[in-house]
Structures are given as C-alpha cells and as structure tokens.
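Risk register update: the risk that structure generation would not scale has been downgraded. Supporting records follow, first protein first.
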Amino acid sequence: MSQLLESPRFRRRVGPLRTLIIAATLLLTAGVALRVSPSVARAIPAPALAEPATQQMTSEVAIVAGGCFWGVQGVFQHVEGVTSAISGYVGGTRDAAQYETVSTGTTGHAEAVQITFDPHRISYGRILQIYFSVAHDPTEINRQGPDVGTQYRSAIFPANQGQARAAEAYIAQLNEARVFPAGIATGIEPGREFYPAEAYHQDYLTRNPTNRYIAVNDLPKIEGLKRLFPELYRAAPVLVAVSQPPN
C-alpha cells in the first residue's frame, strides 16, 4: 500500500485530499482493495465488419487510448502478430507532448499506444476486440480505474477511413448487443498525430511487474488476454527496448 501511495505518479493524479481519502479507505479495508482489480476482462463478439488484408499490405498501424498507457501497451505487447507497441500521446500539439504537461489534463492529449501489426496474422478488427474486451473499460468517461482526466479518455485514432468505418460499426454492434452494462464512451478522433512518450514509460509493465499500480490495475489485463484469447497470447512480449535498466 505504501508503494502505491508514495508514488509521485499516483499523488500527482489524484491530488493530496483524494490521496488521504484513499489511504484511509485502504487502511479500513486492511488491504482488501488492493487485491481487487478495477479492470475485468469481458468476452465480447468479434466485429461483424472485417476488411481482409490485401497482398500488398505487410504492416498496419492502430492507435488507441484507454487510460494509463502502461497497461494498454503491456497487453498488446503480448499479442501474436503485433510487431511493436509504443506508449505516447495523441490529440494535442507536439510542444505539449511530454508527461508532466499532459498530466495537467489541459493539452488535449490522451495517453495512447501506437500498435504496429501484421494484418496477415491479426486483423484490425481483432485488435479492436482485444482493446474493448481486455485493455480497458470502454464505458468509462475521462477515466480508468484510479486515473481521472481527459488524458485518460477512451478513444480510437483511425489511420484511414477504413479503420474509422470499422471502429464506428463495431461500437454500434457492441452497443446494440448490450454486452456492457452501459453505453460505450469511446470516441473516434481521426487526423491526430502520435508522439512517442519518454523512454522511462516504455515497457513499463514488463520492467516493473511488482509495482503496486501495475499489479492491481494492469497484470489482471494480461491474465484476461490469456483467458479470452489463448490463440493470440504470447508469453514473451515484443519490447520497445530489448534491454533497459529498471527505474
């Protein structure tokens, strides 16, 4: 518990008053809250609209946002067919694309992940299925778990009109099927540029598996991926840095 409450990232996100309230709650519950993940993987149907890859397509890029990029990156680094997953910022200007500034929630940026994948091994539709079912809760508005602010919004940044159509159709399909207890809040924001995050944010889940924030909020997502998509799960993640010392 102390590791979570003493984390500068945690304190900066929730503020001093909320930190005190959370600390009191955790003490009253004797640590039970730390064993309950705010993210629960959910089985959902695959997209009905799927555009097959052409022979000319050897690589495709998807950009999604769903709360803290540590967990979203960690999930897709364990997906077969993904060749790269980079944490970064989307939605604001280049000058504002730095963690301390984005954390103010005033830049228009969202913490996001740029996913490069082989469309002959995994489709864009399957990327979206994992995104909605495992990587985050798409019904949350401007928050995920303990993280609150527009920088933690649920959003898809399509690279082209085909991706935009696929995302719009899938959101409509999931809402119609009512697979979530509330409507999907995920926005679709085309024409946005991706800016990679600082090096210390890359591969954070892999490098810090005992970090309390990671253990509570993000490792359950990896377990959800293994359980719901065993055919797409790979044990060895594809990392931004092959070797990088821990923080």
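Supporting record for the second protein:
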Amino acid sequence: MRVKKIVYIINHLSFFYSHIMPHALMAKKNGFKIKVFCGNSVSLNSDKFAKQQLVINKINFVNCNFDSVSLSPIKDMFAFFKIFRELKNYRPDIVHITTTKVQILGGIASRILKVRAIVIFISGMGYLFSNDLNFIKKFIKNYFSLFRALY
C-alpha cells in the first residue's frame, strides 16, 4: 500500500510552525508523509527556530526561492517552475496552500499536475486588502480576487 503524501506550500517556515504544524503532525500521526515547500525568510531568527522544530519532528522541507512581498514576475516565474518540479517529483495526494502568492503559484502548478485534492488555508486578507494601493497593486488585487473566485 502506497503511503499518502501531503505538501504544505507556505511563505515562511515560521508561519508553518505557528499556524499549521499541529495539523501536519496529526496527519503524520495518521500515516501521511509530510513535506513543506517554503519561500524566503523575512525573519532569520524565527525561521531558524522553525527549522529546528521541523527537523526535531522529522518533517522535510525545501526552499522554493520566492518572496511573499516581491512583485518581480521573473522571480515568481522561476519560483513557479521550482514548485512545479518539486510537486511533480514528490507526487502528493493533497496540496495544502496558504497566502496570496502561494495560492497562485502552488494552485496553478497543482491544477496542471492534476493533484487530487487542494486545500486553501486563508489566514487573512493580507497586504493587498489592507493598504493604499497604486495602480499596479490595484490591478494585482483585482486579478487575485478574480482568480480566487474561479477556484
């Protein structure tokens, strides 16, 4: 019997540790193999502690080299291909995705690869819904709102 696998795609390991890890540990206890795909850290101290906790709990993770607040389409394209390649190699049964950028990058990659189940964890409306926005950021906000509605 094949072991079922879950991938958590998240901006930062510290957020995974503080918000998602209890759920991941329960899934692991119930026989799932767990892996975390994360972006670049915004707080080295917080992520250092989170990495230690993941190692202690034997949860594998890989950095997919994206920044949660970056608006660089080239960097995001490389991050998308990294996430896509990692998903293709790991072949998860469930992809659990969080935050705006990850929902777009991980969501599209998961759909293309026909992952059986996608779980979207909405942790807040984030930067796009809480600040005064210039034209480009308003466009991104509207695009994201449309994208989320199509899910």
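Residues 73-90 form the longest helix (18 residues). On this basis the risk owner (M.S.) recommends closing the item.
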